[in-house]
Amino acid sequence: MGASHPRSEQHQYHELMAKTGFSLEQIKNLHIRFQHLSGNEETIRRKHLSSIPALANNPIKKEIIEAFFDKRNQHENETGSFEEIGFEQFLMVMSHFRPPTLRTKDEEREALRKEKLHFLFNMHDTDSDGIITLEEYRKVVEELLSKSGNIGQEAARAIADAAMLEVASTNAPDMGPDDFYEGITFEHFEQMLQNLELESRMHIRFLDVKTTTMHCGKATM
């Protein structure tokens, strides 16, 4: 990074500040972490995130990694995924975990919450069709349970099936026994999590950068 930066790089940093809401020092700290992950290369791939020790036993490790390469998480209307991402794309994903500050206005706070909800929704909506199907929902629940080490695969699937049916009955209470439940829309997803406090609790620890307490200054590696 160096003690000084060319004018173009400084301009790029200020553009990233406007896009992400991170401060200049926070962006510099995250760039240090990006370089550490990539081995000082300009891009990172899935294998770089797969090597993070704190992710090794995470039951939704695959979903977390895929979220970084999901084009929907770039604050644009594209779908699909990248094979590799640069620092700006990495930073755009990290911005979903930025907590509000004391100066954040109510409308900005609500916008931040909706961004986080979209991020979580995208993690479950693996085929990018705008709906979390019951099979997608069941798969995530099953993975969370089966990899906890306290429950077997068959029992995990049975509990996941029950959770799947509960979601269907809650979101479509008038559904008949022969009706087909298409899946969870974003609106349903938002209702399901309406009482969950996401603004400060949704943050990333596995990168060794706690976005809830990320201070200006030297990054902790």
TrEMBL record:
It comes from the Eukaryota. InterPro entries: CHP3, EF-hand-dom_pair, EF_Hand_1_Ca_BS, EF_hand_dom. One of its GO terms (molecular function) is protein kinase inhibitor activity. It is a lipid-anchor. The keyword Ribonucleoprotein does not apply. It is found in: Cell projection, Lamellipodium; Cell projection, Ruffle membrane; Cytoplasm; Membrane. Keywords: Calcium, Cell membrane, Cell projection, Cytoplasm, Differentiation, Lipoprotein, Membrane, Metal-binding, Myristate, Nucleus, Protein kinase inhibitor. One of its GO terms (cellular component) is ruffle membrane. The keyword Ligase does not apply. Transmembrane segments: none annotated. One of its GO terms (biological process) is cell differentiation. Residues 112-147 form the EF-hand domain. Belongs to the calcineurin regulatory subunit family. CHP subfamily. This is Calcineurin B homologous protein 3. It comes from Kryptolebias marmoratus (Mangrove killifish).
